[in-house]
Amino acid sequence: MAMVSIFSLAILAIVFTALENIEQEVEHKVKESLQTVLRATQEAHHIWIQHRLLELSNAAQSESVVRSASIISQPDSPSIMRANAEASVKRSFALMMETYQDKAYWLSDLNGQVLYSNRSRDIHQTHPLFEFKTDKMEQVLTGETLFITGLPQQTKHSNNMYFSAPVFNADKQLQAVLIVSVNQSDHFSRITQLGRIWDSGETYAFDRNGLMLSASRFNEQLHRLGLLEPGQDAINNLHITDPNSANHENSKTLTLMAQSATQGITSYNLKGYPDYRGIQVVGAWTWQPTYDFGLTTEIDKAEAFQIYYRTRNIVLLGIISSLLVAVSLFLLLYFSQRNAKQDLRQARMVLEDRVKERTADLEASQQELRTAYRELEKLAVTDSLTGIPNRRCADEFLEQEWRRAQRGGYPITIMLIDIDHFKQYNDHYGHPAGDVCLEKVAQTLIATGICKRPGDLIARYGGEEFIAILSNSDFDYAEFSAKRLVKAINKAEIPHQFSLVEKQNHITISVGVSIAESADIGLTEIIDLADKALYLSKQNGRNTFRFQLPPADSSTLHIDSSSKVD
């Protein structure tokens, strides 16, 4: 009997060691899954926020917004001019509001008084960001474009996420501030919810007060628990508190995760803690100081460790059965021991199969996130109106090709392209028609086929201006390409009855060309030469092109192009 007891204790020690190893392996897999999803979602947020900041900054610097802000900010501006300026601001933001389903936008003076908004009730009121986020708005007033969140709860505002950018006048002096209220339930929540793993998993964002910033997938459960009022959404209404906790003032405390994250700590917990529903979960979290909000990925502990629990129960049942059989039938001890080991191996195989299955699910989720990243990256370098590369893409491409040309010792051509009298076009046909005109011009330039090589690019450079970059191109090809662009636009015959170009009643362009054939001239200088050439084209009647070459090349050719391109 003593031998049976010793043998039984040895078996127990072996089994509990195996269970401990299995538990550690499961914990490691769960931790890796949570942290991978958290990092992926954090990167997706960064890409989205940076794209929105760039877009708002460009809008704030656009000619229409700058001019309109100058008129609106003057109290004595004529009512007709003011009405036209307000309409221009509205048109400038129409596409952005439609694309991102943003709630509202405001144009305020430097003290925060709203000069114009799509919500008329806010006009002449002080915007809450100037009251409760003075430090952030001071940064905006110094010229920064910011993402702002975390308004104090007592403000009672439904909005808790904003983008803000300064607006400078033509003299580069700060004259106004643009503010856009983010629709948190749209792009922001959708990006956040891509981080869901398994059946009960959820990724969500919150501010420093523990207030939910993204949508919850458990709204129905929250309504049943009374944590949300009927018809109420979790965004900006639900605090990340443990519903079963209460301090001496009968107020609920933040969950373990929220307490840690709001102190700026990045960590994880696999032992389990109650979430905002009171359910035991495991999770990983981080605080993003740049954007001043926290992010967490959580999953119900019961689901995360269900494989381990099932395995443990199977093994324990096998042990108990084996011990009962061992005590009753000593002669069958050997067979009982063998069966128990077989059950253990079976359980491990089940665990491995489940882990593989969960890993496959995670890889599928990661593929979806990668697809979302690629879409966001494409949006960041593509002009939203014309669909061709934007200025950011052109600047990065030009810098790269410039360095490559210097190393390889071959020439590079830069063409600046400007639509002739486009202001008259917008004034008479309207800005929507102007947008269509820009799209047609962009597609016509692309269709010329002058930029088919890897080192060539056509991009929108701003407003009605485009840029063409031709790598390893000599003068003859540059002249051929410029002439082809001008002819293609003429051939497209985009109507412009109000064009001031002689004998033309359709859209025309002027092109300035410069070629750098050595490393003795800088990138900024060659762009300036192309700009001067563009000026010469306009001075010579437009609908043409001109060359402006570096001084070292002037003995070769200081081109004044043909007078006009038929």
TrEMBL record:
Pfam families, per database record: GGDEF
Record organism: Agarivorans albus MKT 106
Chain segments annotated as coiled-coil in the UniProt record: none
CDD domains per UniProt: GGDEF
Domain of life of the organism encoding this protein: Bacteria
GO biological process entries: cell adhesion involved in single-species biofilm formation; negative regulation of bacterial-type flagellum-dependent cell motility
EC number(s) given by UniProt: 2.7.7.65
Cellular component, GO annotation: plasma membrane
Keyword entries, A-Z: Membrane, Transmembrane, Transmembrane helix
Reactions catalysed according to its record: 2 GTP = 3',3'-c-di-GMP + 2 diphosphate
Cofactor(s) essential for the protein: Mg(2+)
A GO molecular-function descriptor: diguanylate cyclase activity
Domain GGDEF intervals: 410-550
The protein's name: diguanylate cyclase
SUPFAM superfamilies: Nucleotide cyclase
Chain segments annotated as transmembrane: 314-335
